[in-house]
Fold each of these.
Amino acid sequence: MNYRDQFKKGTVEMMVLALLMEEDLYGYQLSQLISERSGKAIAVPEGSLYPTLYRLVEQGCISDKKVQIGRRMTRVYYHLELTGLLRLREMYAEYQTFTDGLHSLLSGFARSMEEIIS
Amino acid sequence: MKIPSPAKKYLRAVRRQLPCGHREKRRYIVDLKLAVLPYMLLHPDATAEELCSRFGSPQSIADSYLSTADTSDLAKLHFQKRRLELACASLFLVLVVGSSIVIRANDRRIPKENAMTISGSIPLSSLPSASLETLFNELQYVPTNTQTAEEQKWRTVNGIGALLDSRSEASGAEEPKTPVTKALLTDFINEAVWDCRLRLGAAETADPSDLDEDAVMTLEEGKSAAQSQLDALTAFLAEVEQNATEENAPAFWVRYWTEVLELPIPQGYAY
């Protein structure tokens, strides 16, 4: 079972908002940066990003802009809005609280597992 | 632009898996296609598997939709599916009794030549509005095997739409869920224009072997139909831009769905 995909759910939004804080990006760039910055530990293909991006646009956290590239192609760039910045701050605070709690819960387990295995 | 076969297969597979309403599904597929087609230009030998790796497998995309959807949206989708089951059961009952469908002309806008008849059957007008709405939304995407069936389908869809409109008028118009503005209407028309141009581009350069298994037209017919639709949309868009205001935008909205889009959507280059 791919546990990493389970852990990814709920954090893609935060990753997108964090990356857009630096500059406006389009879908493929977001996907590439998530992979690069996480040391390839997290992979979110471009197609899987769209639902998150749509939701964030609907909620006013980000805005989108179509840019013509060449004669036939367009690219959609996403821009972080103030609402998104505030949400990112809130999410990150919650995330830190959650992971700290999870870490302290599991640290005892890790020691026990080492003892059982050894 | 010719849509390569691996891209078509991939987009079709994604479309089948997406757990959302048709409007959202269509928006998603249009956006995904805008990303896939340039990729195929740079990687003409890419397979469907490579597209899955690059853009996400249909299942992973469906999972990402579910993980971002509100529970109320999912509940609404589930409820819509249940209504569809009820509507399909009702439609089956109608079709079993005879070989066509009676649409009682409560609405004077339905031309007589569009009325399809079968005597003794359960008329659509006896179905509840909820079932008719679901039928109206779902029937548009039912694939057909012949041009005649395709035209019959669209006459039925238009008739159901007109019946719903007349009931709405009789009972008092409901508040639209999303206000119809000139900007919203223009977006819808532009999306349809873009869609037609993609289809026209595909028709211009396609080979007969590119046609889908469920294609109901020859290449020339497909091109002609896409061009007709594009002409109608372009003319209507010009009229909207010139004459539409925020006050009369809803009236233009109704015209868009009942008059401009009444042409059968060319089914030959499904994606």
Amino acid sequence: MVGNEEDAEDILQEVFIKVWNKRHEMHTYLNMEAWCMRLVKNKCLDTIKSGHFKFYKQKEEIDIAEEGHTPYTNTELNDTMTKVHHFINALPDKQKQIIQLRDIEGYTYQEIAEILEIDMNQVKVSLFRARRTLRDKLINAETYGT
Amino acid sequence: MGPERIEKLLKKYWEGKTTLEEEKTIQLFFQNEAIPEHLESVKPLFNYYHHEAVKEPLGQDFDAELMNRLNAGESRFGHSWRFALKIAASVLLIALAAYYFRFINNQSQKEAIATVTYEDPELAYQQTKTALLMISEKLNAGQKYTSEFKRLGEAKSLFKNYEN
């Protein structure tokens, strides 16, 4: 959400500290993991809104080197991954968060609804829209090179 | 996995109707199997998800810094008490400064009043003369009555002499 690992780690530390300070209240939470994820989400949003990034430059490119690939194919792979990264970044915030939580982190619809504090129907509708948008953009990129 | 099965799963996937298990199946397909040409365009998406899901664990630096921050944050008073003390000290300082400033200001005004009469001798002389004339008028008014009392005393002496 914040676009770089350093700020993400900083936010994670702040959330750990908050959870530690509220350790006496832990028994009151039905779903600890969802609560922690909510703290992370809210902290990320606060950081983005305030613009107070400690490490300013956002990740622009994906850099991977797959085994068994030539440097040429690795470059091509990096380019397509970077393209996907930009397509996902261009989604509305809610859809972007749901793609992250479902397709990358593997959370259930119920867990996503608790973390984002929305109802399950909204989760399903947003996921549907996000996936369709990404599919259409990928097909267009393949067909028209955009 | 047969092409028909993957097509069905992908259709469900785009409609947002797949289970987590089915989504894992789709991921595995795009990682390991030969991809039909018409599905090549969406392969990068599942490669991206696979890449992002496999993250390096947090290093020992992370743990060390976290412990430092936790230790720095713990104190006898705690965050809220220290913050309240800082606010109270600031308010007290401002109040004292305001009181001192007002006190100094009053003193300056008193000195200013006294300075005006000393620095203008002609005015001081005129005001003093006026004040003394006022006093003497009052004294003279009283003088009229003292002369009456004196005449009363003389009349009394004459009366005493007559009786004797």
Amino acid sequence: MDNIFGFGDSYTQGHKLDLSYPSYKLWREYLNDELPDVWIELLGNKLNMGVHNYGMGGASNVEIFHTFCKHVNEIKKDDIVIINWTFMYRFRWASYDQRDGFTNKFWMRLSSNPENGKYISESTREEIVLNREHPYYLNEIEDYEILIDKFASLIGFEVYYWSSIPELIYTSPNDKKLVRKYILSDIVTFEGNHILNGIGGPFFKTIKNYGGKTILEETNGFVPDNHLGASGHRVQSELFYDYIIDKNRNK
Amino acid sequence: MNTLHLFGDSFTQGHNMDFHYPNYKNWGEHRGGNLPETWGEILSNKLNMLMNNKAVAGMGNHEIFLTICQYSDMFKKGDIVIINWAFMERFRWASVHKNNDGIIELIESDVKGVGRPQPYWKRLSSKIEDGHHINENTRNDIALNRTDKLYIDEIYNYEKIIEVLCKNIECDVYFWSSDGNIIYTLPEDKLKNKKYILHDFIDIESHLNVNLGYFFTVIRKRGGMDIANETNFKVQDTHLGETGHKVQAELFYDYIMLNNI
């Protein structure tokens, strides 16, 4: 059986793999313990493929790429890889904790959210976040894609990219954007206000246009979370499926 | 004809491609205007290969890896790729060109009379800067953080994907490092790996010249001198001199030939 691999942040990881996120716990209670399938699970079922979801909430683009590196040997000919790039300001910081006499090293995931100054000085964090909004950092993503595309060509798997932010992919000129690897780029348009109840970006506006709702909307505000709800995941999986099987899209 | 692809920092870029570094100019004048071949040039000639040298002085490891990504499409079957990892604390910072007083330098834009800033990647490290591009505390924090072992694990992750790439293309890849903490602190069973060029000469226990580091101790022990020693310290620079480049090229050549039998 062929496999589908997902790499990205919480928009790929989804609500079933993240067992600690409070909003997902609340949503589970709201739904009497029956969380819906995540888009990649639905897509894997439709394509009759095994699903390997390596998305991670809060991951930065560097971490997403490194996760791909770690799992590259699992990917075989005719598999499908779908990568969601994330907010440019996210980065990771080598940190450590002392517990029970042991030093535990880990990558602290950081972003524009204020921190407590325990692992990194706030002024350093702010300056890094500000610097990472420079358009030059977009070129790094292009470099990652060159390598991943090369792998796809050599090994014989399909790779698709999408992004939760407009400045990656969707604001590119058409000759760069309307290529096969940018999944749904033919229907994702960048115009007007793209802040969608807290989820920014033209990608999620497209999901909304096709009837996909957020958890906040589906629970009538009971769960204050702007990740995709059941309908959102369903719509995303259906749109992805239609794109993948129609080889004429962005040919 | 196959190609020798080189990536890394000044220890790979060498003196024939860097036209700005004052010490190389001084060295050239000291030698009466002629600079010798670099190890990459010598090695590509011995291997009868074209040389594609994309190393740049001051590059950090993340930038070295991204450069490999950019040129990975050029790798062909039978090519050789040699990558030198650099000092861990190096990183790059998006900035704009500024003069010594920190004033942004403008170049002419499409609109006559209106200047625009010139963005570029500023290469930084643990060296103290002027504070015009990045706050000194931030620079210090980043440089220090980047010496953590977690960043070394990133390098090994890069190596893994580069190896898989080269295996699929059927080209050879070798790694070495100017930072003693990368590669040469691996346990012996991991260090003794064909991909680590000259690993069989690296003697962790007893032959280390602390000032040179593991790799350049190997070069020095075999007669390869640096610019400072070759010029009797008239040019105070610790990059490899003519003998150093010759020795490194010969050692690399012998290693590659032995491992391709």
Amino acid sequence: MNAGVKLAAGAVAGVAIAAGVRAARARGGHNGHRAGKGRAHLRGVTVNRPPEEVYAFWRDLPRLARAVQQVVNVEEIGGNRSRWVLLGPAGRKIEFTAETIIDEPGKVLAWRSIDSPVSHEGRVEFNPAPGNRGTELRVGLTYKPPMRAAGAAMAWLAGEEPDQLLRNALRRVKQLLEAGEVVLVEGQPSGRGPVKERITEAVVQRVAVGGRS
Amino acid sequence: MKALCWQGVGKLSVERVDDPTILNDSDAVIRVTASSVCGSDLHLINGYLPTMREGDIIGHEFMGEVVAIGPGVTRLREGQRVVVGSVIGCGTCWFCRRGEWSLCDNSNPNSALAEQMWGYAPAGVFGYSHAAGGFAGSHAEFVRVPFADHGCFAVPDHLDDLTAVYASDAVPTGWMAADLCEIVDGDVVAIWGAGGVGQMAARAAQLMGAERVILIDRYVDRLKTAEDQLGVRTLDYERVDVLDGLREITSGRGPDRCIEAVGMEAHGAGVAATYDKVKHALRMETDRPTAVREAIQACRKGGTVSIIGGFGGLVDKFPLGSVMNKGLTLRSGQQHSQRYVPIVLDRMSRGDIDPGYLSTHPLPLDDAPQGYEIFEKKLDGCLRVVFQP
């Protein structure tokens, strides 16, 4: 490439990087913040139900699993432990055991993962919301990404940001607790054929990334 | 079934599509007997609201007969004749419980989209783009209604379809527009927009105790209809200076309450209007706030401006100085269907509100694309086109 083209290419790359940085900042740091060697995400949602009810929902694992769309199976295996099976990208299964390490009924729950491809810890608080608004459900998730950027789990984490997973799950918890169901729009009629319909669903999903609740 | 689908900017077609089914336990399926056009549909059709996809079924103001109910529905039975509110609400979130149904937390499955646009996501609406939930609209033979116990209301037998259909959107939106103003006896109310909603807002303002109601538009036949049907005063903004006219009607005070029922495709005259039109066409300004500006300028000191015309994005040259220095109150929102539909149905039932005259053009669904053309261009004295599939 001659000097002029190199300069132009460099300028374009520079603009692209600047745009990317601006876009990332605009997305509000959704990569979580540093927590020691890992990353931490903290998200809250306000649920118009009393803290004891929200706590009971969270402790009822099959009900909780409905809120996390990627969960294929969950079961209590005794000794404060539960076994989780999630569906990652390309249909790969991700399994881990979660051990409850703090349990204050109606107030706090905390867990850590055992033999997970990505080790993580979580803490959930069930705080009364001000002004009689029910419960402020606050979830903190800390995880340590594996050193090598490889493997199904990392790809899954890379493809479906943990922050977005957390936001979606909390939104669904709120809807399940308040309205009793998550309103569906897939399966409605439209003037699109099945292929276009699937594309539309994917496009809407993609564009929807980046909300703040 | 047949349904009217958006096929791109300015393009509509009637297609054969699948019938809707029960997807959630609280759903009902309605066989549509009447579905009205609305001015806000035009923003959608003309590409001013993002997140439409080709093949989307439009329409949000409708009534019909219950033909199927989900296992969670307890207040409806098959065969019941109901009118359905255009806005969807779950009934259990903090907002629904307070009566602010159009702010529902749980009825917009695409809430992340709306959050990007507006900060937080309001309720889902029928047939009003994916940002409003992507719910299939009502210009069809059948519609699936989520949270049907809350959204469907029994229609009194003596109200015919071409009258009752407006209890879905035009009448409750007009009622809310006036309700937001907190009208007290003796108030003078000025309303921008003599379409279906503006005229219903005028009627509501009268019922709430307004001393004088003035309707502002440029369509002479609409102004004349409003004078005849409602006994309101009118101002044709192409013939008179509105601010002057309102100043004189109120002997120098200005109207106490100003309602904006025009929305983002406002037409105007003068330099500001040209500025808006150019920027709008270039998509440099998403909305044209012509009527809003005028309402703010015209309002008396310390008065209320109630904005229920449809807006989606950002506007230029907003008279914030007028708002601040005159101490105005601005109120706004999409209509809280579930709160207002029962109120207006009661008034309609007693004959206090009679919107039947709005149905100037009942048409079969097959003629829907032409129907929208008649509506958009206001041909042939058209106020509302109503499809009867």
